[in-house]
Write the C-alpha cells for this entry.
Amino acid sequence: MTRIRQALISDLDKIYKLEQECFISPWTMELLLLDIFGSEFNVYYVIEDEDGVFGYIGLNTILDEAHIRKLCIAEEKRRKGHATALLQFAEKKMAENGMYALTLEVREHNQPAIRLYESFGFTPEGIRKDYYGNGEGAVIMWKRDIQCRKS
Ligand SMILES: CC(C)(COP(=O)(O)OP(=O)(O)OC[C@H]1O[C@@H](n2cnc3c(N)ncnc32)[C@H](O)[C@@H]1OP(=O)(O)O)[C@@H](O)C(=O)NCCC(=O)NCCS
C-alpha cells in the first residue's frame, strides 16, 4: 500500500539517492538539506510503500502561489500514477493553506514531465530561454484557481 507524508530528516539519504538517479543536474546533499528543511516556505512530501520511499515532490510558497521545485519517481515505479498522486496530494495541501495557483519550470525536452503536467491541468505560458545553461529552455507552466476547483 502506498502512503504520502511530509518528508523527515531520516528520508534525506533516500531523497538524495533518488535525486542522483532521476535528474540530469542533481542537487548536492547540502542543497537538498537546505531546501527541504532550511526554509519555512518550503515543504517536501514523499511517497512510500512497503519497500520504502520511492518518490518525492518539493514546493516553495510565495504569497498565495506554490512553485513546484522537484518531482520524481524511481524508474521502476513509473507509469503507475504515483506522480499524479503526489501532485493531487500537494495541490490539496496547498489549497488548504490558501494557495490559489501552482507553477513550475520544466526542461523543454522533458516530454514525460510535460505530458504529466498537462494531464494534470497545467498549461504552458512561456519559455525561459537557455534556462539550464546548455541551450535548453524551460517551459513555464501554471495551474490556476486551485481553490475554485476544490469548491
Ligand atoms: C515525470 C515523472 C515524475 C512521471 O512520473 P510517473 O509516476 O511515471 O507519472 P504518472 O504515472 O503519474 O503519469 C501520469 C501521466 O503523465 C504522462 N506521462 C508520464 N510519463 C510519461 C512518459 N514517459 N511518456 C509519455 N507520457 C508520460 C501520461 O499521460 C501519464 O498517464 P498514462 O500513464 O495513463 O498514459 C517521472 O518520469 C520522473 O521522475 N522523471 C524524472 C524526473 C523528472 O523529470 N521530473 C520532473 C521535473 S520538472
